[in-house]
Amino acid sequence: MSTSIDNLPEIDQNDWKTRDQKAIWHPFTPLTDSHKIVPLTGAKGCYLHRTDGRKVLDAIGSWWVNLHGHSNEYIAEKIAQQARTLEHVIFAGFTHEPAVTLAERLLEILPQNISKIFYSDNGSTATEVGMKMAFQYWHNQGIQKRRIIAFEGAYHGDTFGAMSVGERNTFTTPFHPFLFEVEFIPFPENPKTYTKDLIEHTRVQEDVIHRFKTLAESGEIAAFIYEPLIQGSAGMRMCSPEILNQLLGIAKQHQILCIADEVMTGFGRTGKLFASDHCEIKPDIICLSKGLTGGTLPLGVTACTDEVQRPYHTKDLLKTFFHGHSFTANPLSCVAANASLDLLLSVSCQEAIIRIEQSHASFARHIASHPAVLDIRQTGIVLALEIRTNAKTSYFNEVRNSLYDYFLEHDILLRPMGNVIYLMTPYIITDEELQVIYQEIENLLNKMVENE
Questions:
Q1: Stretch 74-100: mean pLDDT, rounded?
Q2: Whose CB has fewer CB within 10 Å in the chain, the N or C terminal residue?
Q3: How far is the C-alpha of 452 from the C-alpha of 447, rounded, in Å?
């Protein structure tokens, strides 16, 4: 017997957790921890609404994607309008206004050397596309360049190509036999506040430049892929635009394609629209996702220069870029991205980014000398605080679970990476809400000192 939409059974919200455990496999979550999953009824602004009536302040933009707050009315209305017109169509052989408009608007704000937009569906595939573009760029010209440079500690996604150019660690151990070889060089991280070992820092930077030059001079490097200014999953490690600019300069001198993974850093997170805007020398390929749609729908972009496309401009079918996804340039996602850009480029949003950046800087100065703080660092609206523990700084530092639980008990969503707490809030967050987060962080630090 069929059930009409008007007579659907009422959902028992109290039973969500049990039903979830029976049916769903969550990402980055041990199956034995599925009982810890928090059921939600909805979200609005900076808050997640729990089934028990509590509201949780989202201090990480729901895994770095949310720019303008949850259930944003403006974006939602644009999506609803588009859903009544064209929800999806194959993008091989067809096009539509939302995709064309979005491509044009992105090219207006991306570095001026970027001229083409290729759509995919998430950040990992955006980086896969970037690497495939780069390798085939050389293949189409009959040039053998098959090696790629990446930073130690990198994270570019969880698909196989993205894993190959990322840090080889516990997350990737089962797949190591299947990953291609990569030339990893140290990440030229800014010196920590409390180590003050500037001599060691200078030595590392000189070593990075020397190793990069040596690899570049081999003539075998096809591309250099990097997270500009901030290595997100490595614990929000940060480097200066100056050292990155030097590496990009060496790459350009040796005809190495530069791939900027701006999946996390794009759309205002570093204080500029793109982290690449901080550097004088621009990449040849830029990968975007996460904040692209304001955190509403999945969408990926790989943008490139005319030069990257040049070897593909041929009637030789075998030199076509054979890559695509079923939901490439989905109209709903594209219209969401256009709506998000409307909000992002507004005066009020740009002023909010400056306000958050200044607020973080003030809190960083206030808390930097706290005995429980090992290091504190900031780029734009990204603030990271490294907590002093008996174990080394690591994603697997055991303090992570207690930190996560502490903040969730106090109705704040922070997802520490080991002993590193970071903030990456929606841009609509108020000064009062920021103070709530700051105060709870300080309360935790004080408790840690008291319990020593």
A1: 97
A2: N
A3: 9
